Amino acid sequence: MKLGDLPTPALVVDRPAFDHNVAAMAAVHPGERLRPHVKAFKSTALARELAEAGHRTFCCATTREVEGMAAAGLGHDLLLANEVLDPVRLGRLGDLARSGAARVTVAVDSPETVAAAAAAGVPQVLVDVNVGLPRCGCDPADAGRVADLARSSGMAVRGVMGYEGHLMREPAAAKAAAVEASMKVLLEAREATGGDIVSAGGTGTYDCNRWATEIQAGSYVLMDTEYLPHARAFRHALFLWTTVISVNPAGWAVVDAGLKALGMDHGDPTIVDVGQCWFVSDEHITFGTDAGSPLAVGDRVRVLPAHVDPTVAMHERMVVVDGEDVVDTWPVDLRGW
Amino acid sequence: MKLGDLPTPALVVDRPAFDHNVAAMAAVHPGERLRPHVKAFKSTALARELAEAGHRTFCCATTREVEGMAAAGLGHDLLLANEVLDPVRLGRLGDLARSGAARVTVAVDSPETVAAAAAAGVPQVLVDVNVGLPRCGCDPADAGRVADLARSSGMAVRGVMGYEGHLMREPAAAKAAAVEASMKVLLEAREATGGDIVSAGGTGTYDCNRWATEIQAGSYVLMDTEYLPHARAFRHALFLWTTVISVNPAGWAVVDAGLKALGMDHGDPTIVDVGQCWFVSDEHITFGTDAGSPLAVGDRVRVLPAHVDPTVAMHERMVVVDGEDVVDTWPVDLRGW
User: What pLDDT sits at residue B168?
Assistant: First the structure.
């Protein structure tokens, strides 16, 4: 099948750009130096590509991601890098660990999350430490107490995690020093918790975080317009393939993809080559047409999402192309909760 | 089951508010004066509630919505209020119409969309006319030509549609006159096309559009924070039910729902009673906690989406509650394309 034959809207992976991204990251963080974040692509087929490139440890943001990865035989070492209290879902992770189908580690940052993990039979934890982003993570001064509580509840403490998400978009000149200061906090917390792992970082700091023992990055694989200026080694490997369904001679056109096909939290998508986005409706993008690019109803248009993670989560599959040839389909099989 | 027992994040319909909204609209536009827009809720179970309230004609935005409604026995009169070129999908609609499983009408606005509908065996069309919103819809002066082309291609022309979406948020004082001017364009186009139907309007103009023969409204059923100021007869009938997974004494807390559970194109969600949204991440909302509302890890929090339509499309189901009692579950079974 050819790209031109695909029904639209379709979420499409550019195989050469994907291969470039995977290779560029693996050159800096080979094997288990990288713990790819499954939340960015929610696909076991894509995860298998990363495993074949040497990365066998993964981060997950939901219990469904953990369970799906284990069911796909990718359970070598799965970190739920998120706090979860639900006893049913955590119980399933405990069962997974006991069955030997996966090595399961869960993030904890409070007495309540420690108690929930212990009650569910989760065998191992990382202590999630706040390193500057106002989100989850305990106060660094509390990390040792959280670790002691986890051990006294029967769980092993593998170390710490901390996400310096507030620094991903720092100017390059200031980024390394800011990351160093943030990681200093995390390393001190690790002194208090014990364990070998210092899990941190992301696509925006992968090249300057020299303190983490493993980098949690996911966006680099597919990339989006918002992130690219902050991680220029990577390429856009994902686009939305659309069809022009209406053209107005007053200077705009409409394609058949909208709010239900595109994460909008990072702003409007980019219309490749033929115009500028005006606004996005449920099933439409209206864009101003470039004077030099006459468009006809039925033409196909590439659209780049501003934020890959929520975009992928809206689709049932990604179609993989090499040039004009469709070479694979990757189900987005880890959606929902 | 009780609301407090639901796993989170869960998308929840408040049954009394839903009933209020359905009754308030049916009082103004009973029966087929309203053509509810399925795109706003993507659920045949919810659509069946509207059919039981007397509305048996529906709008759809995708062919999958049309097919799903027909398969659910709700095919009395389905309008695909959108331009589609895909011969495979349109062909399925033609098959549906021929089989008698549904009455199917499709919007057309160009020679290309007329040709696609005719080739697919679509029996009936509405001519989509631009009435001021820069999106689909032919120039009003072309409506007669599009209708003639449809007829000469073997299809019946039921009339016109035109969406005055640019007026939904007009100040109340100016709205009626602006809608009248916009509908004047549509009525003139109908003179040229023939047919009985003038399909227009939405939740923001349902109470002042006196010219359409049927109103296309969907948001009123569930409502969101962005739309409510423009349609005050309705109530918030949908919320996201979340769990506090982390509390920071410095003044913020985090719940377990984020960009994959909330449409963000209309801005941040509203945290009910206990704080103000700071930012939304893939699986988290970080919000500033009100000084007078001490929160604990494990507490449940209601979150109101800013835009219902893309929010619903992210979920597999809606859980229906009456007070604290879970009374029903409505699968969101019309997602995707």
Answer: 92
Structure tokens given for B55: 């509305």
* Site from B136, B243, B266, B278 to mutate, A interface, most A CB atoms within 10 angstroms: B136
Q: Which of B148, B139, B135, B137 is nearest to B108 (CA)?
A: B137
Q: What is the DSSP letter of A142?
A: G
Contact A245 B136 (CB under 8 A): yes
Are residues B177 and B122 located together in one domain of the fold? yes
Segment A211-259, tens digit of pLDDT: 999 999 999 999 999 999 999 999 999 999 999 999 999 999 999 999 9
- A207, A168, A167, A197: which is closest to A25 by C-alpha? A207
B306 token code pair: 């800013």
pLDDT in tens, A91-103: 999 999 999 999 9
> What's the token pair of residue B195?
């047919």
Cα B156 from Cα B108, distance rounded (Å): 12
Question: Over the stretch A68-122, which tens digit does the pLDDT of each residue have?
Answer: 999 999 999 999 999 999 999 999 999 999 999 999 999 999 999 999 999 999 9
Give which of A293, A136, A50 is closest to B284, Cα–Cα. A136
Show the tokens assigned to B220: 């009123």
- Rounded to whole angstroms, how far apart are CA atoms B231 and B24? 11
B106 with B149, same domain: the answer is yes
Contact present, A304 and A269 (Cβ < 8 Å): yes
CA distance A300 to chain B (A): 11
In a mutagenesis test of the B interface, which of A90, A129, A133, A135 is the best target, namely the one with the most B β-carbons within 10 Å?
A: A135
Q: Where residue A309 sits, what CATH number does that domain have?
A: 2.40.37.20
Structure tokens at B295: 């929160």
Measure the CA–CA gap between B88 and A167, rounded to whole angstroms.
47
| Any domain includes B150 | yes
Boundaries of domain holding A160: 30-216
Residue A41 and residue A157 in one domain = yes
Cα-only R_g, chain A: 21
Contacts of A315 in chain B (CB under 8 A): 336
Picking from B62, B109, B297, the nearest residue to A110 by CB comes out as B297
Which chain A residue's Cα is nearest to B137? A246
Question: Is the pLDDT reported for residue B282 higher than 90?
Answer: yes
Question: Does A255 map to a domain?
Answer: yes
pTM for this prediction: 0.97
A90 and A183 both lie in a single domain: yes
Question: How close is the nearest chain B Cα to the Cα of A8, in Å?
Answer: 8
Residues 252-281 in B contacting A (C-alpha not used; CB under 8 Å)? 252, 254, 256, 259-260, 263-265, 278, 280-281
Domain assignment present for residue B224? The answer is no
Q: Average pLDDT for residues B2-13, to the nearest whole number?
A: 98
Contact at CB, A260 and B313, closer than 8 angstroms: yes
**How far, in Å, CA of A147 to CA of A161, rounded?**
12
Report how far residue B275's alpha carbon sits from residue A27's, in angstroms, rounded to the nearest whole number. Answer: 44
